[in-house]
Amino acid sequence: MMRDDERRGMWFAIGCYVTWGIFPLYFRLLAPVPAIDILANRVIWSVVLLVILLTVRRDWGWLRPALHTPRTVLLYASAGIILAANWYTYIWGVNAGFVVETSLGYFINPLVSVLLGVIFLRERLRGGQWAAIATAAAGVIFLTVSYGQLPWLALILAFTFGFYGLLKKQGALRSMQGLTLETGTILLPAMALLFFREAAGADSLVSYGWGKTLLLLSTSVVTIVPLLWFASAARLIPLSMLGILQYIAPTLQLLVGLFIFHEPFSTTRLLGFAIIWLALLIYSIEGIHHQREMRLGVPAPAQR
C-alpha cells in the first residue's frame, strides 16, 4: 500500500517527466528565434525567477560561504557551462527537426551516468548493469553502422547531462541553491551575448512580438518548476520508482516527434531503438531485483 507521501512524490515525478516530455512542443513554438537567443533568455530569466524564490524564502545564507570556496565556485561554474551546452543542443535539435534523436539521448542517459560513475567515482557495477551498458553500446554501434555516422546529437545530450549529474553529485548545495549558483555563473555571458547580437542587428526580445516575448519570459517557469517537482519527488519516493518513471520523458518526446512532427522513423532506426530499449529493460529489472534483495537483507555477490 503506497503511503500518502509516496503517492504525492509519484505525482511530482510524473509531473516533471511529462513536462520534460512535451518540451519539444514548447520550444517549437519559439522556432523562429535562434537557439542561441532562446538559450540566453532561458538563463537570464531562470536566474531572475530563482532570485525571487530565494528572496521570498529568505534563503541566502549559503551564498557567501559558497563564493569564498574556490572548489565550490569552480564545480558549479563547470556545471553551468555543461548545462548550457545541454540546453543549447536540445533546443537546436528540436527546432532543427531532430526530436526523435533527442529522445534517444535521454533514453541512453541513465546508462551513460552509470558508466561515468565507474570511470570517475570508481563505482562497481553488478553483472546486470554491465549487460545493460554492453547492450546499449551495441544499439549505438548498430545505428552508427546503419546510418554511416554516430548519432552525435543523442550522444552529446546523453553525455552532457551525464557529466552535469556527475558534477552535481559532488556539490554540497541544495537543488535550488546549486541551480542559482550554476546559472548565475553564466548569467553575464548570456547577457553579453544578447547585447552584442542586438548591436550586430539581430532581433531583440520585444521585436519578436508579444507572443514570442511571453514565451521567452516563461522559459524561467518551464525550467525551474519541473526541477522543483523533481527535487520533491527524489525526497519522497524510492530511487527505483524514480528510475522507472524517468522513461516517461523520452517516450513522450519520441511520440511527439513521430506523431505530431512526423519525423522519419525507418525500420532500421526502430531496430536500433529496440536494442537500446532492451538495454533499459535489463537495467530496470536488475535494479528492481537488487533493491528487493537489499530490503530483504540478501548479501550482495562478490564484486570483481
Describe this structure in words.
- The two termini are 38 Å apart.
- It is globular and about 55 Å long.
- The protein has helices spanning 4-21, 23-29, 35-56, 63-67, 70-95, 99-121, 127-147, 152-170, 175-185, 187-199, 210-217, 219-236, 239-245, 248-259, 267-296.
- It has 304 residues and is mainly alpha-helical.
Keywords:
304 residues, 79% helix, 15 helices, mainly alpha
The low-confidence runs, each spanning 5 or more residues with pLDDT under 50, are none
Q: Given the C-alpha coordinates, what overall shape results?
A: globular
Tell me the strand percentage band: under 5%
Q: Rg, please?
A: 20 Å
SS-derived structural category: mainly alpha
* Mean pLDDT across residues: 91
**Helix count from the secondary structure assignment:** 15
Number of strands: 0
User: Largest beta sheet, briefly?
Assistant: none
